[in-house]
Amino acid sequence: MRQKIQQFSQRPFVRNVAAVAGGTAASQAISMAFSPLITRLYGPEAYGIQGVFMSIAGIIGTIAAMTYPIAIVLPKSDTDALGLARLSIYIGIVTSLLVTLALFLFGQEILSLLNAQEISAFMYLIPVSMLIAVAGGVVNQWLIRKKAFILTAKVAVWQTLLMSTVKAGLGFVYPTAAVLVVTNISSDLLSTVLMLLGLRRGRVRHIIEQAETKDSESGLGEWELAKRHRDFPLLRAPQVLLNAASQSLPILLLANYFGVTAAGFYSIATVVLGVPAGLIGNSVKQVFYPRFNEAVHNRENLSALMLKTIISMGMIGLLPFSVVMVFGPSLFDVVFGAAWRTAGEYGRWLAIWFFFELINRPVVSAIPVIRLQGVFLIYEILSVLLRVAALYIGFVVLQSDVGAVAVFSVAGVALSISLNLYVIWSCRTADIRCWKSEYR
What does DSSP assign to residue 176? Predict the structure, then answer.
């Protein structure tokens, strides 16, 4: 038994997940240690305004580079991967400038349409957030490509420690929504800068230099790369946009129907539930994406690999989410203060959905590799429609903020299960095709 455990722990996939999970665990521990202080300093209303801003910026920011950064992992050539990185930056600059122009001409009208006038003072920070997100996404995908997971873990720890300290310190002096918005954007910028510094100091720098000195004919130009990976802007970008919109709908609608305080409750509930989801889900997602890509090239058993990963994540995530399901209101009351007890009511329903989202991470990672982007887009369209219907039932029929969150979460569970089943079936189909080609 000891020998089997040792062999299991020495596998590259397990070591990589452990590296990312270790950094994520440390950063999440730091964040949670600061949370009781920060939530008491700022309060639900400030968190609600921050949530509205981040929701709008997040919806637009998801397609700032037309999702080309996600494709950086796929090419065999580092030269082509660097070409995709440059292409992503170019597109990000153009889209950020276009959003700035749109806000200058129609900003107040857009915010009025969204009933988000509370963030008018931060309006021009939206394109800034977009551009930082693009740069961070490009660097992060390059690190995933090069399996520089230890660097990613170190950056996560330092970013969280520094920004949590700044946020808490400013909270004693100026505890406003503006501070929360600016520190969140600054946090993304700090993460990008730290990753770039790590790249320049680490072994990855030499790989970049070698790729850049190769003959230009050995790699494709940006336009050719854009065409080769056109399924990302045509299929993945709309899917990501729809997903971001559906994820942000509860915050925007809660703010609209029940005020920014309700939006603040939802925001802090998702932050707390994001701890196990981020610790395990993001760690596995980062490592599983290139691992699954290798499995396809090596003609491995894809369905077995997928099922093993999903089951493992389900076993790990069951305990933390069950605790929130049972003790949500009391837990939030003790940790964050009596003002946040309602957030615990949200949390016990959201925990059910977050559990299934956790085991969904490897499935989503596999989608671009096995070319299911079109199916995923259809899934997201249906997902938005179902989630809108769920929120309508909660807000209009039940006329309850907790009821709306409950129905929204149940809809999310149904969607996650259906996506899991379809992708597993697709992996099984790919295995059968591979088997027939080998024994024909």
Answer: S
